[in-house]
Structures are given as C-alpha cells and as structure tokens.
C-alpha cells in the first residue's frame, strides 16, 4: 500500500512558492510507535485461527521450511489449537471492553507516553502503538503517522531482551511497511534495554512493593522468561545471555542472598529442546525440594498477557501447588506503572536526540 502524506491534517498547507496544483502537506513531525507482540480480535475459533496463522507462519518465530511447516500448521495444528488458545484467552479476556489485557495495557502505555511527550515536545511528536500480529497492524500505524506529517519515526519494540522472534520480526514488519511507500520516513529502531538502569529499577520497585505487602517473605524469586529453542543461542541470538544479565542486575539491586533469585523459561512449543530450566517443571522441583513459598515475575513481558495471566498464574501456579507448594505469589508486569513510563521516556529522549 502506498502512502500519500497529503491533505490529512487541519494544518496542512501547500509549500511556499508551489502552485495551486501542488497537494497540501502536513507540518513535519516525529512519530513514535510502541510495538507489542499482538492479540486476537476475539476468542472465537476463526479469530484465533487468523491470529495463530499469522503468528506461527512468521519465519522468525518458526524457521522450519514452509514446504514442511505450512501443511502441518494449516491442516493439523490450526484445526485444534484455536480451541485451546481460545479458552486460554477467554479466561483472561476483558469482557467489559471486549479486548485482551495486552491490547488494553499497550494502549494505556501509549496514552501515558503521548501525554508526557506533549508536555515535553508539544505537537512536534506524535505517539501511537502497533501490534506485530493482529490489530492495530504495524503497517496501518506507520502509514497513519506518515499521513499526519511524520517524516521521522522512532520504532520502539517493547521487548527488553533482544531476540529474533520478537525484536527482529517487529523491526522487519516496520521496514516492510516502508518498502511500500514512495515517500519513506526516516526510521530509528530502539535497541534492547535489558540492562537499562531505569528498567532494572522499575523491576526492583515492583518486587519490593509486592514483598512489602506479604506476611512472610518468599523463599525464592523466580524470574520466568519466554523460552526459545536452544539452538538459537548457538546461532547467535543474544536473548539467553540478556535474560540472565537482567536477573543478575535485578538480584544485585535488590540485595538478595546468593541463590535467592533464579532464572527459568516458559511457553515451550514443539519437539525441540528449548532453553532450560522450564518454569513449569522447575517450580514443581522447587516445591518438592522444600521451597514452599515462591514469587514469580516475567521480566521479558512489558504487559500482562495470556503467557502471564493464564500460563504463569494458572498452569505454573497449579504445578507448584500440586507438588506441595504452599504460597505462590505472582508479581505483575510493569504495565502502566509510573516507573515503567519514566523508563520509556528516558529511552525516547535518547532516541529522539537530534530530531526534536
């Protein structure tokens, strides 16, 4: 789809010395796009199938040959999985707004950043949000910002730790959108921020806030990250190392005892060996080993979603309790927390340098 940034805002005007035949142009602005993973539009079979098909067809996510993978995906996996995933989403769905928690939270984050940006930069910076899969699509959001006069765009994948199946595919989609434009905006992509001091501080504050409200201190803090196949690490993906660095820095900031914070990986999919230990198995092992009270957080997720609200607070909690665990505390994602928005604005301040 081509983009024509003409006559789209009330303050559009023709360039100086141009003729009457020249289209009106919106004033030059800078756009900011907060990019998250995505969400189905609803929990019914066809909505889930569309979403899962787009997600699981991404070669960054599943890098098997399409000649093998697509028949298996379309004819086998997507005949059953939409029902299971639909039930999982339905268990956390916001029925009042008829939207997923991830969509609601990401919209709220964008609104908070937009309010801060207006205070700092006036109308020179426009803020929006997009999803890699589902709606609002990356293409529609970037095209919309270009039509509103954004000649420069900061694209902000909301993934603290870089990985090809998250950060890279989000950036891919942004650049694919530019490929269809005659007049492309300049684009900056925000790098991983797994060791940003404000990110670590925001995580630490979220832990301290929850711990302060407990009668008894948990035996362990489990930092559960989304998993990926082990071979990705050997192929050069830095995700595993960045996850461990995040936890190390969080441990140091909290001042916890050695061994009081552990790293695990969740959401395994398919027959391959994934990064270990697997969260669902590790929490059960910890319970059997006498760690009866644990807290679990998900530092790789910027917003609570099905992987945290249903998987961690459902399946993983159940595994811990079934193995003899007595107290399971889930620490929510940073979501719209003020410290999280402070961190986003700090990062954007760096990335906007020279543009505003």
Protein model, in words:
There is one protein chain. The chain has 356 residues and is α/β, with parallel strands linked by helices. Among the domains are: 41-90, no CATH class; 197-330, Rossmann fold. It is 46% helix and 15% strand. The chain has eleven helices and eight strands. It has helices at 45-56, 66-90, 101-121, 138-147, 164-179, 197-212, 230-234, 239-254, 279-288, 306-322, 338-351, and strands at residues 29-39, 125-134, 150-157, 186-189, 220-226, 261-266, 293-297, 327-330. It has a four-stranded parallel β-sheet, with helices on both faces. The protein has a four-stranded parallel β-sheet with strand order 6-5-7-8, sandwiched between helices. Helix 4 (138-147) crosses helix 5.
Give the arrangement of secondary structure elements.
Elements: E1 29-39, H1 45-56, H2 66-90, H3 101-121, E2 125-134, H4 138-147, E3 150-157, H5 164-179, E4 186-189, H6 197-212, E5 220-226, H7 230-234, H8 239-254, E6 261-266, H9 279-288, E7 293-297, H10 306-322, E8 327-330, H11 338-351
Parallel strand pairs: 1-2, 1-3, 3-4, 5-6, 5-7, 7-8
Tally of alpha and pi helices: 11
Uncertain stretches: none
CATH architecture of the domain at 197-330: 3-Layer(aba) Sandwich
How many β strands by DSSP? 8
Strand order of the largest sheet: 2-1-3-4
Cα-to-Cα separation, first versus last residue: 29 Å
Elements, N to C (H/E): EHHHEHEHEHEHHEHEHEH
Mean pLDDT across residues? 94
CATH class of the domain at 197-330: Alpha Beta
Principal-axes geometry comes out as: globular
Strand content: 15-25%
CATH topology category name of the domain at 197-330: Rossmann fold
Computed over alpha carbons, the radius of gyration is 22 Å
């Amino acid at each position: 789809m081509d983009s024509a940034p003409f006559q789209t805002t009330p303050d559009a005007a023709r360039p100086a010395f141009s003729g009457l035949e020249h289209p009106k142009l919106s004033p030059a602005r800078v756009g900011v796009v907060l990019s998250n993973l995505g969400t189905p539009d609803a929990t019914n079979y066809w909505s889930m199938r569309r979403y899962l098909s787009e997600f699981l067809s991404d070669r960054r996510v599943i890098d098997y040959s399409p000649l093998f993978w697509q028949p298996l995906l379309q004819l086998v996996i997507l005949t059953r999985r939409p029902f299971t995933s639909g039930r999982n989403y339905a268990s956390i769905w916001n029925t009042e707004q008829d939207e997923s928690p991830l969509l609601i939270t990401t919209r709220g984050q964008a609104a908070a950043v937009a309010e801060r940006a207006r205070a700092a930069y006036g109308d020179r910076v426009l803020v929006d949000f997009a999803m890699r899969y589902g709606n609002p699509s990356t293409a529609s959001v970037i095209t919309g910002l270009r039509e509103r006069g954004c000649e420069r765009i900061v694209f902000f994948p909301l993934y603290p730790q870089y990985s090809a199946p998250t950060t890279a595919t989000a950036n891919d989609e942004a650049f694919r959108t530019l490929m269809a434009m005659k007049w492309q905006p300049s684009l900056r992509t925000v790098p991983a921020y797994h060791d940003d001091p404000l990110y670590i501080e925001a995580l630490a504050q979220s832990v301290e806030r929850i711990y302060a409200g407990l009668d008894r201190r948990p035996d362990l803090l489990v930092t559960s990250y989304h998993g990926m196949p082990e071979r990705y690490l050997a192929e050069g993906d830095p995700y595993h190392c960045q996850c461990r660095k995040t936890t190390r820095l969080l441990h140091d900031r909290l001042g916890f005892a050695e061994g009081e914070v552990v790293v695990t990986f969740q959401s395994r999919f398919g027959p391959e060996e994934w990064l270990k230990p697997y969260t669902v198995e590790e929490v059960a092992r910890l319970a059997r080993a006498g760690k009866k009270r644990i807290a679990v957080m998900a530092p790789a997720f910027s917003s609570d979603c099905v992987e945290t609200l249903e998987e961690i607070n459902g399946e993983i909690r159940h595994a811990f309790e079934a193995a003899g665990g007595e107290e399971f505390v889930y620490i929510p994602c940073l979501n719209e927390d003020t410290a999280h928005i402070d961190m986003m604005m700090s990062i954007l301040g760096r990335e906007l340098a020279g543009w505003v």
